[in-house]
């Protein structure tokens, strides 16, 4: 009779040697990288429905969950992206080297199948600007690669959510095939907040030779309904954070999203490595907003958008003369948006108010230089040139509604220089400086504050930044501390909002200074602790808003996780998490703020294996103390409803059964 045995390991445990890629565009150890870069390893258990769940514990990164599936997760890194009205802006997003950010710098993670992600690498600081437009930071997702053939079925549920998932992997000598499908539904934490998400991913990998690999991936996502309960005013939140404003039901605020993408990449890991990637996708959005948009100059209260996008990029490593290595690369990408706006006749489609075709085209070229001056000293630098073209064709020209057609080109460049000095095998110092840029998005170019026509006067904002830090790593500890300073010019801010039409202008300078710290400590074979924090002063730095705190940015955040296995021979792990965030202002003038909050989560998980069968179970309690807190703020909300309530205490459980061969 076969024996029952246990597989016991700390969930999402990081490897002994951590390899990072984003800092210098080539693989190197974490200690040798000349930048603030960290990796989160994703646990294979739990209800994963929000990218903020995967990004906690990264210093300098503020991941705010809105608990509102009609709105994307709100992310900011060292203040970049903090003032985005929707989606993710100011942060370059990619998965397996394929961009998730559009040419205009706007991106989102709502369509990513999070359960297939193995790790997330986050690069902060000056070297991030070498990724191009709007790259105040880089978030790089890496898909889990199967080690063996297996099939796994997952079931998870909580008071509000339920999730079913199946994953299949077939692994051969030279190739592997992965298929994952997931269905998620929620009744919502508040009235009128129901949501459903269906996702699937097909991933084929083949080794053409010992050093040449081909990867083909197809991603599909369909969100049939994402109800929007709308944000609350501070008074409404204090009175009852679980309420929904009447306008949500009156206008039946809701969003539907469909997206599919196919991508292919070819990677060579020889002495002269190269990479080539192509992608093509389509995204459809239908959304009803909380107003009619009936005015002839309005864009309407119902949005219909079809986006076609595609791109290609490549890079080649040239060994110039040892110890100098150059990486040369280029990319081209394009989005084509067909956008309509209609009157929202209280949940029914009304008259046409917008009919446009918007196109963004991007051409980039870059060079990266890595110079290993000695066994201890290395230099890294780079330069990137961007040619970004916008074309807006307006087909709705009627009466007082002007022709919003126009075009604009942006010619920008970014550069950075970094140094790393390794004192010994455990301790290293790094420093870097750089200059980057962020162009207006298509949405920000759409309307002028003066004429109502296209806003071609908007310029790109620029930033100059530096950072310096120390890294320390041995068999039990991994720690880092870094100081940074970022000065931005020509920041883009909201100028006016009228009838559903928002216009923008260049105005503000900002100055952001801070310190980040991380400490991972393995106390024993059964216990480890992870602590991360940042303190940041992020303020406007001109006469208009001098000294005011940037809205949407917390001055301090602290995250702590404690993992414990009571006994080596018992397949049980306990995890306690805590997260503190200081108050967050909601507008440029700092007239209101979301209060500081401290929350705790607790998780128990176990895993057993019998011959080819594997069984995993988990139980989790989020917000242990049932703390009322604001999950995210809506920056510069004209109607004052700026608070997105966080969720209360919630118990969740799940089970996974797998067969491996």
Please give the count of helices: 4
Give the termini separation.
19 Å
CATH topology: Maltoporin, Chain A
Approximate strand percentage: over 45%
Q: Largest sheet at a glance?
A: 22 strands, antiparallel, barrel
Describe this structure in words.
This protein is an all-beta fold. It has one domain: Beta Barrel (Maltoporin, Chain A), CATH 2.40.170. Helix content is 3%, strand content 58%. The protein has four helices and 40 strands. The strands form eight sheets. The chain has a 22-stranded antiparallel beta barrel. A five-stranded mixed beta sheet has the order 4-11-12-8-9, with no helix packed on it. A hairpin with a 2-residue loop joins strand 28 (492-498) and strand 29. Mean pLDDT is 92; it is low at 1-11.
Key terms:
Maltoporin, Chain A, globular, transmembrane beta strand, siderophore uptake transmembrane transporter activity, mainly beta, 40 strands, transmembrane, 22-stranded antiparallel beta barrel, cell outer membrane, Plug_dom, 661 residues, five-stranded mixed sheet
Quick description:
3% of the residues lie in helices and 58% in strands. It is an all-beta fold. Strand 8 and strand 9 form a beta hairpin.
SSE arrangement:
Elements: E1 5-6, E2 19-20, E3 28-29, E4 36-41, H1 52-55, E5 61-64, E6 74-77, E7 88-89, E8 92-95, E9 98-99, E10 106-107, E11 117-124, E12 137-143, E13 150-158, E14 161-171, E15 175-186, E16 195-207, E17 212-227, H2 234-239, H3 246-250, E18 254-268, E19 274-288, E20 302-321, E21 324-345, E22 348-372, E23 377-394, E24 406-422, E25 427-438, H4 442-445, E26 461-473, E27 477-489, E28 492-498, E29 501-506, E30 510-524, E31 527-540, E32 556-564, E33 572-581, E34 584-585, E35 593-594, E36 597-610, E37 613-622, E38 630-633, E39 643-645, E40 650-660
Parallel strand pairs: 8-12
Antiparallel strand pairs: 1-36, 2-3, 4-11, 5-6, 7-10, 8-9, 11-12, 13-14, 13-40, 14-15, 15-16, 16-17, 17-18, 18-19, 19-20, 20-21, 21-22, 22-23, 23-24, 24-25, 25-26, 26-27, 27-30, 28-29, 30-31, 31-32, 32-33, 33-36, 34-35, 36-37, 37-40, 38-39
